[in-house]
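Holo model, 2-acetamido-2-deoxy-beta-D-glucopyranose. Inputs:
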Amino acid sequence: MALLLLQLGGVSGAARLCKWGRRSYGVTAQLVGDLRALVGDSNVSTAKVVREQHGKDESMHSCQPPDVVIWPQNVEQVSKVAQLCYTQNIPMIPFGTGTGLEGGVSALRGGVCFDLTRMDKILHLNTDDFYVTVEPGVTRKSLNAYLRDSGLWFPVDPGADASLCGMAATSASGTNAVRYGTMRDNVINLEVVLPDGRVLCTAGKERSFRKTSAGYNLTSLFVGSEGTLGIITKATLRLYGVPEATMSAMCAFPSVQAAVDSTVQILQCGMPIARIEFLDDVMIDACNKFNGLSYPVLPTLFLEFHGTENGVKEQVQLAEEITQLNGGSDFAWARDQEERNKLWTARHNAWYAALAMRPGCRGYSTDVCVPVSKLPQIIVETKEDLMKSNLTGPIAGHVGDGNFHCLMVMDLNDEEEVNKVKEFTNRLARRALALNGTCTGEHGIGIGKRRLLQEEIGEVGIEAMKQIKSTFDPKNLMNPGKVV
Ligand SMILES: Cc1cc2nc3c(=O)[nH]c(=O)nc-3n(C[C@H](O)[C@H](O)[C@H](O)COP(=O)(O)OP(=O)(O)OC[C@H]3O[C@@H](n4cnc5c(N)ncnc54)[C@H](O)[C@@H]3O)c2cc1C
Ligand SMILES: *[C@@H]1O[C@H](CO)[C@@H](O)[C@H](O)[C@H]1NC(C)=O
Ligand SMILES: *[C@@H]1O[C@H](CO)[C@@H](O)[C@H](O)[C@H]1NC(C)=O
Ligand SMILES: *[C@@H]1O[C@H](CO)[C@@H](O)[C@H](O)[C@H]1NC(C)=O
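Output:
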């Protein structure tokens, strides 16, 4: 029985040669049996459809299914399975909610997918010190629903309802980052299962403090590691008081330059603006059609102010002066919760609005980030490039951070168009690098941006990253083929 090899996903269970010359003995019936014993029968699946659901995210990267999917219930199980995989040289791929945009969950060499959605408890809320500890299956929306009556909230808000530990793994951010920071600023401690099964608490077991000078920052090392160093099984996150007053507004501009110049000036005067999002004319048009709205089809800023009643009034007045000096329209206000939801739902639906422009097509979202003062130049040049290349790419951006997306919509059956998009996105990334920016502000490196990472960080930087990787994961089993 133990010798029976399973044929899974067209990949033979027989010995597979891993990168760096180590042999993988693949996922055997014996291994699947051991997994069932460790996590329970109902928490293991080798069904094709299940494996295919876990072999791709929301990006256009093709599906690479794992050999088996497991749903661990607790950290002990994660640790025991990791130990088992480690001794048998089986690749391990952590899976949050699969909303990633860089192919992060693809099982490039097969192996065991750890779907963490069944570890979904909120373990500890501390309202005095403003933090919460969650298991990896808790999503950002479910956390905020749980916090509703506490007077606290968690601000990091990618467009999708992603898992909080997946967000830590990709160093995600969203529309509130300009005021509240990204995941990197809001993770206090992580519990991580290392490839060999050891359990690490990056800031020390159960600790949560606002600052420390105690050695290397291991928390920050795991934030953005995209599942390549270990499996995050617990996160302690920073919370914020719900502001007394909130106002949202939108403002249309005669040109991209005028909208982005306003952003730079608003930030330069030190205003603690909560959200400042840019949508170009193409994006506004798509949002109107998708959400049944009738916003003016012009370059537009969506803004939000948080603070005390008086503080917000002051911020609004100053922001409106700046936008008007740049030729912006009067602010259209969204005062009550319902109006505000309508406005921000339109923003959060931008991806689906872009896809709806060309039914049957697939999307790819760029996410370069540059110093804010360089934004006007890069957005204007990028719009010109899009026109010249005849590509569909509405722009939506977290411009307060210098970060913006071209939502590239393309026909995957049209090889010429796909190649043109690839060339365009490489040109855009290199344009950002030339302005001292980064090729990815929030989506991560995944499969597709490894070359760009090399250009961004240089030879010594890549070497240092590879050394870190091999220290934690000497057998290259943890999400292999990603990042470095
Ligand atoms: C419509 C839409 C809008 C989006 N908007 C934004 C945005 O504004 N900002 C932004 O930053 N992102 C955005 N994203 C991308 C995506 O939501 C984020 O990358 C998110 O952080 C992924 O979380 P996830 O739980 O879905 O992770 P997955 O897709 O499941 O995994 C992503 C990566 O993290 C690893 N991983 C997941 N969980 C763990 C864990 N517990 N331990 C270790 N590694 C793990 C995986 O192996 C993989 O490499 C958007 C996506 C969509 C579809
Ligand atoms: C360490 O990194 C975490 C996550 O990026 C961050 O929240 C924390 O402030 C950092 N600690 C120090 C002392 O810089
Ligand atoms: C531009 O692209 C569209 C498809 O998006 C195509 O129908 C059209 O022919 C292209 N025009 C030129 C000049 O290439
Ligand atoms: C990049 O940064 C360097 C050092 O600060 C500076 O000299 C250079 O002008 C910057 N490049 C651009 C395009 O701004």
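The radius of gyration is 23 Å. Confidence is low (pLDDT under 50) at residues 1-24.
Archived with the compound record.
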